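Subject line: Sequence and fold of a protein, written as structure tokens
Enclosed: The protein record, placed directly beneath this head.
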Amino acid sequence: MAAGGLAGLLPAQTQLEYALLDADTPQEKENLVYQYLKKMDSRERDLTVPELGRDLQWLNTEGPISLHKDLCGKVVVLDFFTYCCINCLHLLPDLHALEHQYSDKDGLIIVGVHSAKFPNEKVLDNIKSAVLRYNIVHPVVNDADATLWHELEVSCWPTLVILGPRGNMLFSLVGEGHREKLVLFTSITLKFYKERGQIKDNNIGIKLYRDSLPPSPLLFPGKVTIDNSGERLVIADTGHHRILVTQKNGQILHTIGGPNSGRRDGRFSEAAFNSPQGIAVKNNVIYVADTENHLIRKIDLELEMVTTVAGIGIQGVDKEGGAKGEEQPISSPWDVVFGNSISGTQEDDVLWIAMAGTHQVWALMLEGGKLPKGSDLKKGVCLRFAGSGNEENRNNAYPHKAGFAQPSGLSLASEEPWNCLFVADSESSTVRTISLKDGAVKHLVGGERDPLNLFAFGDVDGAGINAKLQHPLGVTWDKRRKLLYVADSYNHKIKVVDPKMKNCATLAGTGEASNVIGSSFSQSTFNEPGGLCVEENGRLMYVADTNNHQIKVLDLDTKILSMALPILNPEACDVPDNLPVQKDKITNLPKLPKSAPNVQLPSLTVTPGQTIQFLLKLTLPPDSKLNEEAPNSWFITAEDNTWLLQGQCLSGEIKDVSCQTIIPFQLPRSHLSAEAILAVKACLYYCSKGSSACMMKGISFSQPLQIASTNQGSLTQVELIHTFLTN
């Protein structure tokens, strides 16, 4: 390779860029690129890309790919990216469009060269998750040590390098926003080398990683929040491009959008989102940061309608704003939270927006009002509140002079002495505050003092600048304890911050990316948690454990990570409305054989609103197998106490006896008696492996309940274990 890496392209390509600025017609531009290629192709010595190491790990391919053997005869676009980088994410639609226009049969191949910024991003499993999350369908190589990056002297993310069919470097494009040039350079390069007979139409062995995965109720959930009543959760099921509203036991009340991405307002059944992230709920209204559509959406649960309230559906570059919401271009909103203007008469009259794409915090005026250090604003206006738009870790008394680096999480502490927004500033690995009195932006924990150093990350408990985080994506305020919780995403931990002392400590997670449930906080594990929320009474925390595709429930009083929330589809279980239980629902439940044993369980003391999680573990006789075609099921009854069944999931399938079935049950908030008996029953059909005989067997577990008014804890687990005997 000629010395200087990409610098060797600079003189000739700079001349081309200036000439293109003066060109008036598409034909002139094409001719200029064509002449440039003739000049580059006739050089005595190609600027050649070195071969990738044989030991590198590849995704979306059948095996390792050689740039000079397998891709000989192809025009190759190398995308140097790191999956945390919002600018890299902004480039993906351009690459998707190019892939749609040209295939490997046409002679084009895109190769993602993952060159990590954070240590966590060097791990192949984490890159796999990102490839799935962002629907990357071209080959990706994990260049964990950034070998090719250094060889070519790449200087920033993202950088595109376009290669000719000999592995010869032809163009480089630095940063985002070059779609027109990318298409122009690529299409003319394909044409130029096809005319010379140097393009091959052979297929490259593509094997998409996503095709090997089993279905999951949630896919990369990014954020979770809970309404003020404490009864409903709202989940951004980001990978399924939908919003779920569930009861606290996981039973789905509303599914809005999904499973495919799109951009459409309308009724719940026809609405579409694209990788939604942040959500804010009040009464029956939900606001959504529809991230990859560059929109803010409004969900009305009463009307069952979705509308757009900010953004125009394409990525904006405006860093000031001030237009009416639906006319104002915005860029990759990542989180939203309600707040109050300083002059408004209504509560929650502002929607604060973490605008990751422009490294700012914006405001959408839900009513007319005034922001700190601002003038009166009309209802519906959407504008920048804090952040210059430069990607920095800069604190300043003037909010417009401060700098953020991909703010991704927001939480409000409206009470004195705080009266501020907390900001998870992911790329500076800090948590910052914005005063809602005067707009001053201050440091809380993480990072370092140099505002231009965005590499001051780590995993260190401590105070202020001595604490270190790694790409935090979420924050939530605990009003009861006056503490802030942080989703320290790339450290796979939940941290707790005392804003008074500026002290930051690990609350939960070991730092290992895995999935350990049902243990103390110190032993529990996560995988890139992206969002979190605390219920109003401060007892339960819900964590969007993004790469584990789960919502985890943490009891802040007992310090137990109690469960992964089961997501129950309404069609998968028999769910009465929040009305007296319908009698036909009960009569439709299966009847157990008279021989079915009835297991009496010890009495359980519970409180109204508490969740019981029944863990059903059934064992078949030796040499027996479950008849999977038969209606194997569990169901719940409560004779003389049908008020217990209000709003419950009364039955569900048993698909596999080799693992336990989780049956969630939430006690109603209002109770009609202090004692009750709940029955959990199961009906199985199984066959002896040695004969054609098939048996129906049943089991009933009677659970006496003592309903107390004192608080016993938010979640209790009860094991239901039984072994069926041979006849």
In short: The first strand starts at residue 57 and ends at 59.
